[in-house]
Amino acid sequence: MKAYFWRSNTITIPAALTLTVALLLTGCLGNDEEDWNGKNISGLMPELEFDLINSQGDPVSSNDYSGRVRMLFFGFTSCPDVCPTTLQKLNQVTSALSPELQEEVLTLFVSVDPQRDTPERLTEYVDFFGGDIVGLTGEELQLRELAKRYRTTFGYEEPGPDGNYAVSHSSAIYVFDREGNPRLLIRPNLSGEEIRHDLVALIQESS
């Protein structure tokens, strides 16, 4: 079974089959208390946990960003379409929140292209999309372990004559609550309003 979230010039990959099967088996999981727009993944994935470096080159862990609703997205700064489109949408979503609610949400953009995405490049990239986005990266092994933790992966295509190469990665957005528990899987076809609804609901339930 293949379930591609997004088709574009950048090759994107589906979540692992185990997650797909789990979601199919649970059907409308999670709709008993809240009418989520994203897929409820409560109990299907581990809590948010990582040790990486931020866009200033400093070591950070998931604990450094605790206490806020966090959206985790894998990508790379040379991405021609999926990454900028997604980050722009998330910035529009958070910017539409009240100032008080904006402080409760953070986007974690994890670059899976450490060879090209230096801290300086990451800083310039995430700053372009707003102040509530944190750029993260690390050694390839660290990144692969993190991707595997959330049942996805990434890969590098063969470089072209100019040395540039495409990177395959998931287009899914993983949403964690204030305590770092996995809550939602946001698909690219959701509207900004649908994402905003889910974020507000997560903020309010733990306020």
Can you tell me about this structure?
Belongs to the SCO1/2 family. Keywords: Copper, Disulfide bond, Metal-binding. One of its GO terms (molecular function) is metal ion binding. This is SCO family protein. InterPro entries: SCO1/SenC (IPR003782), Thioredoxin-like_sf (IPR036249), Thioredoxin_domain (IPR013766). This protein has 6 helices and 11 strands. Helix 2 packs across helix 6. The strands form 2 sheets. Strands 2-11-10-5-6-7-3-4 form an 8-stranded mixed sheet, with helices on both faces. Strands 1-9-8 form a 3-stranded mixed sheet, with no helix packed on it. With about 210 residues, the protein is α/β, with parallel strands linked by helices. Strand 3 and strand 4 form a beta hairpin. The protein is globular. The chain has one domain: Glutaredoxin.
Features:
metal-binding, eight-stranded mixed sheet, 207 residues, SCO family protein, metal ion binding, disulfide bond, disordered N terminus, Glutaredoxin, Thioredoxin_domain, single chain, globular, three-stranded mixed sheet, alpha/beta
Provide a concise account of the structure shown.
This protein has 207 residues and is of the alpha/beta class. It has a single domain (12-205), classed as Glutaredoxin (3-Layer(aba) Sandwich). It has six helices and eleven strands.
Write the layout of secondary structure elements.
Elements (H helix, E strand, L loop, with lengths): L11 E2 L3 H10 L12 E2 L10 E4 L4 E3 L7 E7 L6 H14 L3 H4 L2 E7 L7 H10 L4 E5 L2 H10 L4 E3 L10 E4 L2 E4 L5 E5 L5 H14 L2
Helix pairs in contact: 2-6
